[in-house]
């Protein structure tokens, strides 16, 4: 058994009655030792990477776009959320697969298979994406601290930095602790919106009608593009491949296929939960604000005040706690992704504290000079939308190559589907970029 797996799973990963030395002599693979524990315990042990990745799909940027969509257009754009979530499942499955198939993460593979100028360009834009990611996540968490406790935004940003360091430090003690912490934050977000949904209620028939694709003017198209831009996050495309690349070392192609099947379950469950959270955000906003006294509420602060005025302080508290959990979790995941990006693209590492200080500097500047938090979130989403193709296109190109993926190379239908998704995301995000630029 490899040392990392032994640390994570403990002695009970070895078949009953067999000590570690005997297990090595039996030449059992890591996966064989895991499977000796039973199917359910094996599944639970292998779940986790997608739960870390899915936090980016419910970060503070999603709060802003989903609330705006529900309050402005009601249930009209439910179909956009569902479609975006299905796209996310495909993309994250490909990212998880490339780590399992190659034992390398996406930035490392880009460095190995693309020309140096291309690699440098990909790295530089990825660093800009990291700063934009920090901007959205720091501003969201700082705003939550401000709403909950009245903490000034700049001080709240510093508190967020400390909290994200604390969460990320768990990863140094084993990936399982970090995954559990992120899953706990996910649970808080889910419970917060479940509580508000049950308390406020919504029209199931109208929500179901929103599954039929339609728009209502150019503003609805713009908001649909924003939802998609806030949903597919470039940094977790890089990160997910790193989360699966060394988790369990497969012995052969058969074990790689087995691991891939487990990862599909992981992605389906985690992205499914993220999709539920996003959907609950939208239906709560549609039920409470659409065509009501606070119709058109498009800011997080406005939504918080609306919950307080129309429902009660408990609903506002649940909303703010969900936002805080989202900011803390997504900021730590963003830092982790930044480490993967730098080490993968240029094979360099810098101290975590220094890296964190660099990437969070723009967010702290924004908070210090008093920029409107919601405006800052919108700007960050535009930058992130521009970065999506630089992660997604290399992923599609590499997963279709048999010399890279071996037995796990994409089928033609998978490559076609991924290419269509990439083209659609690029087109809609460019539309979003152009519209905001000229508007």
UniProtKB/TrEMBL annotation:
Where does the sequence pass through the membrane? 43-60, 72-91, 149-168, 180-202, 222-244, 265-290, 315-341, 353-371, 377-398, 418-438
Topology in the lipid bilayer is annotated as: Multi-pass membrane protein
- A GO CC term attached to the entry: plasma membrane
Q: Which residues form the signal peptide?
A: none
Q: Kindly list the biological process annotations in GO that this record carries.
A: iron ion transmembrane transport
Task: State the compartments where it is located.
Answer: Membrane
Q: Which GO terms describe its molecular function?
A: cadmium ion transmembrane transporter activity; manganese ion transmembrane transporter activity
**What are the entry keywords?**
Membrane, Transmembrane, Transmembrane helix, Transport
Q: Which InterPro entries match?
A: NRAMP_fam
Q: Which HAMAP family match?
A: NRAMP
PANTHER family found in the cross-reference section: NATURAL RESISTANCE-ASSOCIATED MACROPHAGE PROTEIN 2, SOLUTE CARRIER PROTEIN FAMILY 11 MEMBER
Q: Mind telling me what this protein is named?
A: Unannotated protein
Q: What organism is recorded for this protein?
A: freshwater metagenome
Q: Name the lineage.
A: unclassified sequences, metagenomes, ecological metagenomes
């Amino acid at each position: 058994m490899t040392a990392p797996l032994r640390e994570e799973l403990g002695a009970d990963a070895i078949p009953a009655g067999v000590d570690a030395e005997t297990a090595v002599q039996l030449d059992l693979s890591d996966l064989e030792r895991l499977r000796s524990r039973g199917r359910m315990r094996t599944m639970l042990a292998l779940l986790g990477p997608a739960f870390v990745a899915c936090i980016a799909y419910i970060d503070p940027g999603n709060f802003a776009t989903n609330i705006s969509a529900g309050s402005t257009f009601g249930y009209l754009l439910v179909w956009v959320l569902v479609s975006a979530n299905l796209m996310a499942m495909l993309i994250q499955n490909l990212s998880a697969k490339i780590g399992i198939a190659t034992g390398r993460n996406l930035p490392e593979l880009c460095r190995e298979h693309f020309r140096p100028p291309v690699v440098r360009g990909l790295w530089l834009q990825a660093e800009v994406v990291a700063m934009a990611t920090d901007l959205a996540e720091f501003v969201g968490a700082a705003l939550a601290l401000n709403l909950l406790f009245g903490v000034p935004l700049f001080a709240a940003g510093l508190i967020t930095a400390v909290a994200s360091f604390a969460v990320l430090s768990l990863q140094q003690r084993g990936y399982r602790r970090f995954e559990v912490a992120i899953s706990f934050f996910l649970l808080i977000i889910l419970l917060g919106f479940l509580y508000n949904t049950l308390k406020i209620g919504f029209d199931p028939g109208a929500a179901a009608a929103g599954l039929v694709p339609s728009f209502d003017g150019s503003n609805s198209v713009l908001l649909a593009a924003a939802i998609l831009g806030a949903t597919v996050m470039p940094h977790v495309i890089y990160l997910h491949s790193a989360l699966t690349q060394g988790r369990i070392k497969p012995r052969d192609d058969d074990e790689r296929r087995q691991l891939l099947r487990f990862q599909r379950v992981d992605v389906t469950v985690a992205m499914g939960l993220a999709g539920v959270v996003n959907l609950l955000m939208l239906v709560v906003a549609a039920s409470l604000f659409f065509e009501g006294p606070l119709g058109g509420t498009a800011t997080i602060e406005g939504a918080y005040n609306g919950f307080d005025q129309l429902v009660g302080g408990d609903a506002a508290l649940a909303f703010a706690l969900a936002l805080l959990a989202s900011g803390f979790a997504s900021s730590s995941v963003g830092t982790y992704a930044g480490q993967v990006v730098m080490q993968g693209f240029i094979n360099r590492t810098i101290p975590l504290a220094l890296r964190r200080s660099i990437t969070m500097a723009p967010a702290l500047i924004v908070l210090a000079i008093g920029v409107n938090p919601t405006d800052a979130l919108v700007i960050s989403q535009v930058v992130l939308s521009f970065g999506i193709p630089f992660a997604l296109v290399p992923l599609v190109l590499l997963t279709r190559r048999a010399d890279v993926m071996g037995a796990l190379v994409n089928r033609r239908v998978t490559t076609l589907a991924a290419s269509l998704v990439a083209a659609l995301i690029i087109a809609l995000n460019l539309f979003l970029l152009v519209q905001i630029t000229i508007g």
